[in-house]
Amino acid sequence: QHNATQHPRKEREENNKTISTRCYVDDKVSKAAWLNRSNIIFAGQDKWSLDPRVDLVTKGQLEYSLRIQKVDVFDEGPYICSIQTKQQSKTSQVYLIVQVPANIYKVTEDLTVNEGANVTLSCLASGRPDPAINWRLLNPSAEPLDGEEYLDITGIMRNQAGRYECKASNDVATPDVKYVNVVVNYPPTIKKTQSSETPVGRMGTLQCDATAVPTPEFEWYRDEKRLSNAQGVNIQIIGTNTILMVANVTEEDYGNYTCVASNRLGVQNASVFLYRPGTGRDINGSAPVSQSLWLLLACFACLFFKC
């Protein structure tokens, strides 16, 4: 039979590419045309379409193919190669599906929140087919999080701070990836203190280490009096750590010192001791005052109930 040899099929093409929808005829064909739905694109060699991106590919007398440059989503649909012989007419149809790579067009900007706040991160993406959106917090485990376009975090904690990754993918091209940096503010917690067992005449070193966001400010006190570098001591602050150095310790220097860590969200203090050798204090320092108070109450309760 003398007809087009192209069989009905679907063609999937990526956006902005050039495609050729092929149709082959033989020398018995008297008329041929290309149509998009009911619109004539070519009738024989005559171009009816006004679209400059569309042209014919004719190699010899056997090929009668349609070429579309810079394909976009509006080109999607059925394309029909229609031929006429003396005996009959035949058509062959191709359905063009235009695919568009995933593209993230809007994502939450970097943000800073207080611990305990409710946070929603958004990641909006386009593409054909519709892209799947996945979230991860890029900590050491980087496990997937339960969220799509919107990631809801209820009562965010300090260990949920970090860099969040949003990935949009639809298998058309490489996934699109964007990032959101989340800073979580929280009040200071004094996590370590270091007391000092120092003989008279030697240098005593007291240390206090806290964790907080924003970075805490530190102060040192002795008997309710704030200490400064002008009072015979040297105070160093390095990030979340502070050191109080007492040069040439005297009997008057022995006793309790208070380290205070503060930021705009809160304050915490702890007792640190400078003591003479042999008095038996714990050289690793004391717990924060709030914890020491509970220990003191527990001791009184134990005495009352004759533990």
TrEMBL record:
Pfam family, one: Ig_3
CDD domains: Ig
Species for this entry: Gasterosteus aculeatus aculeatus (three-spined stickleback)
Keyword Transmembrane helix annotated: no
Gene3D superfamilies registered for this protein in UniProt: Immunoglobulins
Protein family membership: Belongs to the immunoglobulin superfamily. IgLON family.
Domain Ig-like: 1-92, 101-181, 187-273
Stated name of the protein: Ig-like domain-containing protein
Keywords, ordered alphabetically: Disulfide bond, Glycoprotein, Immunoglobulin domain, Repeat, Signal
